[in-house]
Write a structure and sequence with these properties.
Order of helices and strands: HHHHHHHHHHHHHHHHHEEHH
Strand content: under 5%
Bound molecules: phenylalanine
Radius of gyration: 21 Å
Helix content: over 70%
Shape: globular
Largest sheet: 2 strands, antiparallel
CATH class: Mainly Alpha
Structural class: mainly alpha
Distance between the termini: 42 Å
Strand order of the largest sheet: 1-2
Number of domains: 1
Length: 454
Amino acid sequence: MATPTAEREQWGSRLGFVLAAAGSAIGLGNIWRFPFKAGENGGAAFVIIYLICIAFICLPYLFAELALGRNSQKNPVGAIAAIRKKTPWTLVGGLCVLTGVFILSYYGVVAGWAFGYIFKGFVAPAVESSEYFSSFIADTAVVLPLFALFMLLTISVVYGGVEKGIERWAKVLMPILLTLMFVVIIRAVTLPGAGAGLDFYLNPDFSKIDGTVVLEALGQAFFSLSLGMGAMITYGSYLPKRENLLVSGGYVALFDTGIALLAGLMIFPAVFAMGQDPSEGAALVFVVLPNVFDAMPLGTLIGAVFFILLSIAALTSTVSLLEVVVSYFVDETTWSRKQSVWLVGGFTFLVGLPSALSQGGSDLLTNQISLFGQTGFLNIMDYIWGNLALALGALLLSIFVAWVWGTRQAVEELQIGADGMFSGTLVSVWTFFLKFVCPLVIAIIFGAIALGVI
Ligand code: PHE
């Protein structure tokens, strides 16, 4: 046990919490995954379904994670144990911690690519993008140091602790991110031919909506808000009682959604203006965009700016992934924060090595292993931890909060600091959503993911 008398660390201000939690939510998921998912799934129609999922499923569930965290003042394992001692439910907390390690292990690899791409325009200005990308990610001598560097950056932020590390950096990095995004958006929407991209992105064609689109949108909504692995339990555990969870959580969802929408505004006009295909898939950001930048006035600079902002967004997310695991070791063992950060960070780097080598570095890890219809170690990891584990975690945690802890207790926690704004119909609506809508809908997606529909 950490010294029981030691005060738990806390956020220094509401803004600090909101920026740190929004920083966790805003990441590769918004800027890389959201545009390519929208591009593959019909553009504006996907966006509308995504917004509905955020409002009706993810938002109610987000409040449950925050309430559980602040009530228990603990990491995901400790939070569950604080409510029900010695039950198998603590395994759900264990799943959260494991999910943190495993998502970080491959997310850090992709973040390393984004970091390396800051320099792409300067190092290889005229090389064809898709060839460049395949040889770049296959080059172990480049990818491994970048991954190591990104892990070191993550470690150094988490090392500083909640207020002096995570909060301080979020306050610096998030405004830079927003400013850089506006620079790229202004460049993108003023390109000749950008209108077709705006039309694809903003003018819905409802005939494109089918089961897959709905399921993809919901999966994306969970991943994007960092839900299902206890990140919001952990960040909520550093909140003081005076904080209004509804308002702060609402801001986090608003910022995350806003940045995803802005990312689309940054990417689709440019993609269409340059005559590229929006349904290019996972390579959209790394292959199509560099083509776009190459062909654009001031492209090298804009390209560098874009990958700087992608790296910043990824860093505030990797920080939250590491923090979930570190908070577990700090709360539940005798390890100090500093020891935990180094040990967990180092271990995660080792776990990430096969992912880093799975893009051509090692033929075994690249082509010869397949599972769940995915080929290559990194893709398999993303499928298991980024899809299955998050959906399972969200399902079990929503059942735990609604049916084991009980919505009455959760409502009481949400009412603390809410100045009477959480009462009457709002409470009944939230209770209904958490008890029935969230678990049922998540169970449906989980089933669909497990059956390979998504
Ligand atoms: N939400 C992050 C993103 O959009 C990813 C993430 C998932 C971070 C789960 C923490 C926990 O990139």
